[in-house]
């Protein structure tokens, strides 16, 4: 890794012997002696290790580094010792206005602090290449690591092989964090702190990866939260992490395996904290089953062998409707030799389960999926969840924690405001027991998202497995091969909304149609789209449906200009919604939000568009090639960039729009511009539509998906193509109109 390479260089070239020591910040400044660099071009580092650490400790035992310590230094290494601070931060690094090429913290242990384990603040720091935190252990329930970059750029951040109670990383005020990696770590945050929080505000944090972590969780905040405001994001990757609570009960294993009339149900205490099981409740009322304790028609509850005795079973009670079984166990250890349900012990028991009625039936373990299970352990810890399927055995089920009581904190949340996000990957994670949603995208103010959500296990959340909250923002990508079960609400919720919209409460069919919509917020001259107005005669479309300009009457009513409601056959009977389509400078409308979970169209965010001839576009990792045609949209200010353009690539992040002349400064106040490739420039209206897409690169038999074709809308859909030439191909379907864009 970069860290090890850099440290080995530092060790070879720097003398780590200590000089003058100090025990408080008021003592004399320490200057670590260094080996002469002679004529070699090497880093000049301050290295703090067991030999000289005392010279940097404050009165509370915390390590403090500031500008005065870095005079003549351009790198900082802290390694190989423990810190115990009786108050305040264990480690404070506060640097501003200096040159710092590398910061490395390795093999450190924080045993005590009352504020932040490691608090690192870098402001106006220049030439920073790497920040590396490796093999760090921080104890306690307060925030473990807080790193803030303000007007500071860094090429790479690595947090590796560490145990930290919460990680907070901020890139503010134009800071650029070009690569980030949190990996192979255990991050268990205490109350009041996220597991991992990445906060970007008017900065960048591209290519940020959170992957292969052993555990990430929080006591009462989001497990993983990504915030980005006025900051495009590219290459965000969260993959192969264990996020949230462990499965199989985290103290309880309960299984139903095979035919429940023949095979016993098995309950095991697997607590790692020495807890005893006090009560156990098995509720089948929600899945249409009931217990049959009749000795003739069914089978009453009975513990197998001596397992009831060895686990301290006191009683078994069925509810009046025979759908809830409650077992009670001894938890008192006062009497010598009294049996309890201790960790490692197992109860096996039989009881007949039938369909509600009762209706005799063969009930197998997988028929119990969805049944509710709860238990109370000593220390008053309650476990609650449901039976879920066993992927290794079709006829079995097992207990998993969740869904929890619905809460407001999420497993993974991507929270975006005016922050278009491209090339996002959420893959291979196991997210368990989130109080809110297992995974949520909350996008606002034109924060379009492209990416893939695949191969995740999203179980036991209090709310939804996957939730799209898209306000004035679109999602385009793929949601495939995820395991979503046992969540408290929906598997996937899709909530596309626009910021200016409302319900139609009444319509007056006058010579100028009047619409009632409480607190509509519209002003005279606004353009709206009305849809869903139901007409009494279904063969006549109500004229209020469509695009109209309004005149405000009062807070609750407005007129649709030039819309006559007195025409023959027009009579409003109900329904309807409206929204402001928010027309962009290129004539397109952004009011209609789409969530497309099958798209693979190349697209990107425009971070810069120069007012030059030709216009030069900055779009991170665009992947385009010279000669390709793209469609550019929503570039405000420099509107000459909009439309279908042929490009010339400059490098991996920039390209020119051929034959363009800039006509203004690019304005991102109301959102960033975008581009899409695979542009269709024409579709014939014939028996077999002929589509034109210059340099399409297809071959006959390829299956493609077309979207966004206007006029000749029959061209939208999935087709196997027949290639005519390098720029055109046939769609084996008849057209239904003239192509308009």
Provide a descriptive summary of the structure in words.
The chain has 741 residues and is mainly beta. Strands 1, 3, 4, 6, 8, 10, 14, 18, 21, 22, 37, 40, 43 and 55 form a 14-stranded parallel sheet that branches. An eleven-stranded parallel sheet has the order 2-5-7-9-12-16-20-36-39-42-45, with no helix packed on it. Strand 24 (252-257) and strand 25 form a beta hairpin. The longest helix is centred in the N-terminal third of the chain and has 12 residues, at 2-13. Mean pLDDT is 86; it is low at 1-42.
Summary keywords:
single chain; 741 residues; mainly beta; disordered N terminus
Uncertain residue segments: 1-42
Shape: globular
Number of helices: 2
Radius of gyration: 32 Å
Main sheet? Answer: 14 strands, parallel
Query: In terms of structural class, how would the helical and strand content be classed?
Result: mainly beta
The pLDDT mean sits at 86
Give the fraction of residues assigned to helices: under 10%
User: Gap between N and C termini, in Å?
Assistant: 50 Å
List the helices and strands and how they pair.
Blueprint: H1 2-13, E1 45-48, E2 63-66, E3 75-79, E4 82-84, E5 91-96, E6 102-112, E7 116-123, E8 130-138, E9 143-150, E10 156-160, E11 163-164, E12 167-172, E13 176-177, E14 180-183, E15 186-189, E16 196-201, E17 204-205, E18 208-211, E19 215-218, E20 224-229, E21 233-234, E22 237-239, E23 242-244, E24 252-257, E25 265-269, E26 277-283, E27 289-292, E28 302-303, H2 307-310, E29 313-318, E30 324-329, E31 346-350, E32 352-355, E33 372-377, E34 381-390, E35 393-401, E36 412-417, E37 421-427, E38 430-432, E39 439-444, E40 449-454, E41 457-459, E42 466-471, E43 475-480, E44 483-485, E45 492-497, E46 501-503, E47 506-508, E48 514-516, E49 527-531, E50 534-535, E51 546-554, E52 557-560, E53 572-574, E54 577-579, E55 595-596, E56 603-606, E57 608-609, E58 615-618, E59 629-633, E60 643-651, E61 654-657, E62 673-676, E63 682-683, E64 689-692, E65 703-706, E66 717-723, E67 728-731
Parallel strand pairs: 1-3, 2-5, 3-6, 4-6, 5-7, 6-8, 7-9, 8-10, 9-12, 10-14, 11-15, 12-16, 13-17, 14-18, 15-19, 16-20, 18-22, 20-36, 21-37, 22-37, 23-38, 36-39, 37-40, 38-41, 39-42, 40-43, 41-44, 42-45, 43-55
Antiparallel strand pairs: 24-25, 24-35, 25-31, 26-30, 26-33, 27-32, 28-31, 29-30, 33-34, 34-35, 46-54, 47-48, 48-52, 49-51, 49-54, 50-53, 51-52, 56-62, 57-58, 58-61, 59-60, 59-62, 60-61, 63-64, 64-67, 65-66, 66-67
């Amino acid at each position: 890794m970069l860290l090890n390479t850099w440290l080995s260089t530092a060790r070879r070239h720097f003398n780590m012997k200590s000089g003058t020591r100090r025990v408080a910040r008021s003592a004399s400044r320490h200057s670590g002696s260094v080996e002469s660099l002679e004529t070699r071009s090497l880093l000049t580092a301050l290295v703090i290790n067991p030999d000289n650490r005392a010279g940097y400790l404050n009165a509370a035992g915390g390590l403090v580094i500031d500008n005065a310590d870095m005079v003549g230094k351009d790198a900082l290494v802290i390694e190989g010792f423990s810190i115990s601070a009786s108050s305040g931060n264990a480690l404070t690094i506060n640097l501003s206005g200096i040159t710092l090429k590398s910061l490395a913290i390795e093999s450190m242990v924080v045993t005590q602090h009352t504020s932040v384990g490691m608090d690192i603040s870098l402001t106006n720091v220049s030439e920073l290449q790497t920040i590396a935190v490796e093999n760090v252990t921080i104890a306690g329930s307060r925030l473990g690591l807080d790193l803030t970059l303000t007007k500071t750029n860094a090429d790479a951040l690595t947090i590796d092989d560490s145990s930290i109670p919460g990680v907070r990383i901020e890139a503010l005020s134009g800071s650029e964090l070009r690569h980030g990696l949190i990996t192979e770590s255990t991050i268990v945050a205490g109350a009041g702190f996220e597991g991992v929080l990445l906060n970007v505000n008017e900065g960048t944090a591209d290519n940020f990866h959170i992957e292969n972590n052993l555990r990430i969780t929080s006591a009462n905040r989001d497990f993983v939260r990504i915030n980005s405001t006025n900051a495009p994001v590219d290459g965000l990757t969260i993959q192969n992490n264990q996020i949230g609570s462990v499965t199989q009960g985290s103290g309880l294993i309960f299984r139903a395996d095979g035919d429940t009339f023949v095979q016993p149900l098995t309950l095991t205490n697997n607590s790692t904290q020495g807890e005893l099981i006090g009560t156990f409740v098995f509720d089948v009322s929600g899945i249409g089953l009931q217990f049959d304790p009749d000795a003739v028609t069914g089978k009453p509850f009975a513990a197998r062998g001596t397992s009831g005795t060895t686990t301290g079973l006191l009683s078994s009670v069925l509810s009046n409707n025979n759908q809830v079984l409650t077992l009670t166990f001894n938890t008192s250890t006062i009497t010598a030799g009294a049996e309890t349900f201790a960790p490692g012990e197992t109860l096996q028991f039989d009881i007949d389960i039938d369909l509600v009625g009762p209706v005799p039936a063969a009930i197998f373990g997988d028929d119990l999926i969805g049944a509710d299970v709860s238990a109370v352990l000593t220390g008053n810890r309650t476990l609650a969840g449901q039976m879920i399927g066993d992927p290794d055995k079709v006829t079995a089920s097992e207990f998993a924690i969740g869904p929890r009581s619905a809460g407001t904190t999420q497993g993974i949340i991507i929270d975006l405001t005016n922050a278009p996000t491209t090339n996002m990957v959420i893959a291979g994670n196991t997210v368990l027991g989130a109080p809110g949603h297992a995974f949520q995208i909350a996008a606002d103010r034109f924060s379009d998202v492209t990416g893939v959500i695949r191969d995740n296990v999203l179980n036991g959340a209090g709310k939804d497995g996957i939730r799209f909250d898209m306000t004035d923002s679109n999602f385009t990508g793929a949601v495939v091969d995820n395991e979503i079960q046992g969540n408290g609400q929906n598997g996937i919720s899709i909530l596309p909304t626009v910021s200016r919209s409302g319900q139609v409460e009444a319509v007056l069919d006058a010579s100028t149609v009047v619409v009632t919509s409480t607190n509509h917020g519209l002003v005279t001259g606004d353009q709206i789209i009305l849809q869903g107005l139901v007409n009494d005669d279904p063969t006549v479309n109500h004229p209020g449906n469509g695009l109209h300009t309004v005149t405000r009457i009062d807070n609750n009513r407005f007129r649709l200009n030039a819309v006559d409601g007195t025409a023959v056959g027009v009579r409003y009977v109900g329904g309807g919604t409206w929204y402001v389509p928010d027309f962009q400078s290129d004539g397109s409308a952004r009011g209609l939000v789409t969530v497309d979970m099958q798209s693979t169209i190349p697209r990107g965010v425009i971070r810069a568009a120069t007012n030059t001839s030709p216009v030069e576009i900055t779009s991170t990792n665009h992947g385009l090639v010279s000669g390709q045609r793209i469609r550019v949209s929503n570039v405000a200010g420099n509107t000459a960039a909009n439309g279908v353009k042929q490009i010339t690539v400059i490098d991996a992040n920039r390209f020119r729009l051929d034959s363009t002349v800039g006509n203004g400064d690019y304005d991102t106040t109301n959102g960033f511009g975008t581009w899409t490739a695979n542009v269709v420039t024409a579709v014939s209206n014939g028996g077999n539509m002929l589509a034109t897409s210059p340099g399409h690169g297809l071959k006959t038999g390829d299956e493609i998906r077309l979207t966004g074709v206007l006029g000749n809308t029959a061209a939208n859909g999935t087709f196997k193509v027949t290639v005519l030439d390098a720029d055109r191909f046939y769609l084996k379907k008849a057209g239904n109109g003239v192509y308009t864009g």
